[in-house]
Every structure is written in structure tokens, then in C-alpha cells.
Amino acid sequence: MIDNPEYKGEWKAKKIPNPDYKGSWVHPQVDNPDFVDEKAPTKYATMDYIGFDLWQVKSGDIFDNIIVTDSVEEADTFSKATFFKNKDAEKVMFDRAEEAEKATAAAAAAAKQGADKAAEEAEAKDDEEDEEEDKEEDSI
To answer: Which of 82, 84, 103, 132 could be 65's S-S partner, Cβ–Cβ 3.0 to 4.6 Å?
Structure first.
């Protein structure tokens, strides 16, 4: 290590005086004439629409029998009349659709396997024919 006689410590930016400086800026508070202070902003007399923001991985999802309420009794009555009434039938339909999808996938896999096997056999046959031609050429 060699001392550097020109080293004067850590560098710092030079400061110059600013006679117009009045301190940190604070934004002015301006009254909003359209502001309404609602005491219960989440209470609505009626609600005509509901929206969902969904990301679907698999198509076929169905949303029905939607209720928005603050009454547990009303929600229970509604669920018994709609959800629980259709739950078992919808499960059967879902299971059938899944089985059909699996059968289709299995048939496609079998067809691909058969096509791959046929392609391998054709390639092997071509190789054998090429070898026979090479032997005939060598014998001539």
C-alpha cells in the first residue's frame, strides 16, 4: 500500500447557496366541491349486476345461481333450492364428460402409437431394400 498525498477523504458534492430556497414543497390542500361523505358506501338499495374477473385454465366452467345477500337464512334457502338440488346431477354429467375425454385421449394415443409403429416398419423395410441393392451392386 502506498499513501496518496492528493487524497482528501470521501468525495462530496459542493454546495452553493440558494437565497430563494423556502423549504420543502407542500402541495396545497384544495376543497373538492363534488365530494360526498357517504356513511355506508357498501350498502345498496338494489344490485342489478355482478361481475367476475376470471382466469380460466380449462374451458367449460359455468357460473349460475349467484346470490348477493347479507342474510344467512336467505342464502341457506337459496342454496337448498338451487345448488344442492342440482349438485348430484351436475357431478354425474361432469364424470361422464371426463370419461369421454379420457377415452378420446386414449384413442388418440393408440392411433399415434400405431402410426409410429407403421412408420418404423416402413423405415426398416426401406433399410432392408437399400442393403439388398448395395449387395447387388457389390456383386456386379
So the answer is: 82
